[in-house]
Amino acid sequence: KVNSEIQTDIITLTRYLTETQHALGSTATGDFTLLCHALQFSFKSIAYYIRRATLINLVGLAGSENKTGDEQKKLDVIGNEIFVNSMKSSGKVKVLVSEEEEEALVFQGAGKYAVVCDPIDGSSNLDAGVSVGTIFGIFRLDDDAEGKAEDVLLPGTELVAAGFTMYGASANLVLTMKGGSVNGFTLDNALGEFILTHPNMRMPKSRAIYSVNEGNSRYWDEACKDYFNTIKEKGEKPYSARYIGSMVADAYRTLCYGGIFAYPADKKSPKGKLRILYECAPMAMVMEQGNPPGVLFQKSSTSLHILVMMN
Ligand code: AHM
Ligand code: MG
C-alpha cells in the first residue's frame, strides 16, 4: 500500500451534481445538472481570461456602457459573451438576464430555467488584479411560461439555486440549492475541475468585521451613520474595517470569517447601488442558507440593499 497523503476520492463539482441528482431519484430529469455543467464551464473560462488579461490586452475599457450606465471593461464584455453563449448552448435556459445586456435574452424552445447574472461583479477592480466574481441565480419557470422578461420578475425567495464564483488567489465557487446547505468548491487549475473544499459552509458567529464604503457616509441617513458609529465606538473593542469593493469578495470573506457587509441606500443612490435581481437576491440566498441558527439576517426587497448582521 502506498503511504501517501494524496486524496484519491475527491468530490468534484461534476460528481457532486450527479450525486445530488441521483439522491432526488427518478423525479430529477438531469436538466438542472446539465445547466450547472454549463455554468461551471463559464466560470472556468472567465477565470482563465481574468488571469491572462494583462498578457493578452484584455485590460481597460471596451468603450461602451451597460444599461445601468457603467462603463464596460473589455472583460465585462468577454465575460458576458462567455456566460451568454454557455447558457444558450446548454439548451436548458429560456430566459437570461445579465447586467451587461440591455434586454432579457429569450432562447425560444429551450429549457425551463431562467438565469440571472452579473458576469463580472466588481469590475472596477479588474485592472488592479483585485478579486472580482460572477454572481448567478436560477429560477424554475412554470411549464407554460412563454419566455419573456416578465418571467423573471420574481422574488428572491423563488430562486431554486444561487451562488457566485470569486476569482481571487484561486477561483472559489459557492453554490446553494433551495432548502440545502452552502457548498464551496475550489478550481484546481491543473485538473480543470472544481473540487469540494468547503462543504456545508456556515458563517461563523463572532468576528467583528464591518465592510461598507464609508466614503459614502456623508450621504447616509442618520440611522445608518449611528449604526456604523456604534460598532466602532461602543462595545469592548471596535470592529475592524475591510472593504474590497467587489461584493463577491467582501461577501465571501463575510461567509468565511463572519461580520457585516452592507451597501446601504444613500442620497446618491436612494434605491441602493446593488441590483436586487442579479446581485442582492442570489447573495441573500447564499447568506441565508449559510447562517447558523440564531443569527440575525436582514434583507430588504424595497430599498435594494443587503445587510448581513452577525452577533
Ligand atoms: P459592478 O457590478 O458594476 O461591478 O458594481 C457592483 C460593485 C459591487 O461589487 C461592490 O459591492 C460595489 O459595486 C462597490 O461600489 P463602490 O465602489 O461604490 O463602493
Ligand atoms: Mg455587479
Automatic annotation (TrEMBL):
GO terms for molecular function: fructose 1,6-bisphosphate 1-phosphatase activity; metal ion binding. One of its GO terms (cellular component) is cytosol. Its cofactor is Mg(2+). Pathway: Carbohydrate biosynthesis. Keywords: Carbohydrate metabolism, Hydrolase, Magnesium, Metal-binding. It holds the Pfam family FBPase. Residues 203-289 form the Fructose-1-6-bisphosphatase class 1 C-terminal domain. It is an enzyme of class 3 (hydrolase). Its EC number is 3.1.3.11. InterPro entries: FBPase_C_dom, FBPase_class-1, FBPase_N, FBPtase, Fructose_bisphosphatase_AS. One of its GO terms (biological process) is fructose 1,6-bisphosphate metabolic process. It catalyses: beta-D-fructose 1,6-bisphosphate + H2O = beta-D-fructose 6-phosphate + phosphate. Residues 11-199 form the Fructose-1-6-bisphosphatase class I N-terminal domain. PANTHER family: FRUCTOSE-1,6-BISPHOSPHATASE-RELATED, FRUCTOSE-BISPHOSPHATASE. Homotetramer. Belongs to the FBPase class 1 family. This is fructose-bisphosphatase. It comes from Orbilia ellipsospora.
